Amino acid sequence: MKSVQYINLTLSVPEEIYDLAYGVISDYRTRGIEEKFDELVITFDYDYFTAEIEADLLAQLRMIDNSISIKGKEIIEEKNWNAEFEKNSPVVVVNERIGIAPEWKLNELNTSLKIIINPKMSFGTGDHATTRLMCKLMEHSVKPDSNWIDAGCGSGVLAILAIKLGAKSVFAFDYDLWSVENTMENLILNDISNEIQVEHAKIENIKLPPAHGIVANMFSNLLIASMEKFYNSLKDSKGVLIISGILKYDKTDVIKSAESNGFKLINEIFEDEWVALQLAVRC
User: Fold this and answer.
1) pTM score, whole prediction
2) In this predicted model, what pLDDT tens digit does every residue of 137-194 receive, in sequence order?
3) Half-sphere exposure of 96 (CA within 13 A, CB side)
4) Are 100 and 125 in contact (CB under 8 A)?
5) Domain range for residue 76?
6) Paired residues of 199 in beta bridges
7) Residue 47 maps to a domain
8) Which residues, in sequence order, are CB contacts of 11 under 8 Å at separation 6+?
9) CATH code, domain carrying 65
10) How far does the chain reach from its first CA to its final CA, in angstroms?
């Protein structure tokens, strides 16, 4: 049987416009995106990625920044993906309490709270500054028996953390079907089932249920566009909104949007060029 193949497309993209680039890339059927320094590596199904798709994607991206270019293309076999991920998947120690690791490296974690996240294609085990920042803010924000929303759940790491911190339930969703599948697999690995509901949906099209807290690790343009929706979900409980995926230079715009939609800033933390914000419904 022929091995499944993928295309890795490496683009030269200035890091300060990653959020705009993601907005364009989301219109195409991708398997995942890996961020490097001023580079994005996008994975496509081999049969999907035609010369027409390549030309159209580059043309759309160059409408944002004409300097964007293609640095390389590589055909990847599925078996090579799996071997590479097993070799390179890291153990992530957020702090003394919280740790994240793939199943085969769980014994390397010495934290009291362990989250198993097995990578799938370009979804890692949480080894990104924004994930660590979100986990740190969640640690003291999730209250026992509270109901949470994970907007753009990716691998499900934040939804799983919410339950392990004492939340009663989490409603998680992502526009990417592979993210939804990966989240559901990771729920099983963490012995979580009924506490987390997972749906395949775009944030623009979904009605958020009432909640005590929302976590959203997504780029600034989506966060700004979703502020009213976040507020409507949290207003009755006077809940908390924890967000990241925000580059430092975007922080002011995101805070301004949050404040104009009924939130107040409670806390902000930084790692490298990334920012995470903790906001609360203004009384």
Assistant:
1) 0.80
2) 999 999 999 999 999 998 999 999 999 999 999 999 998 887 898 899 999 999 998 9
3) 0
4) yes
5) 5-84
6) 173
7) yes
8) 21, 39, 40, 41, 42, 61, 68, 69, 70, 71
9) 3.30.70.980
10) 61
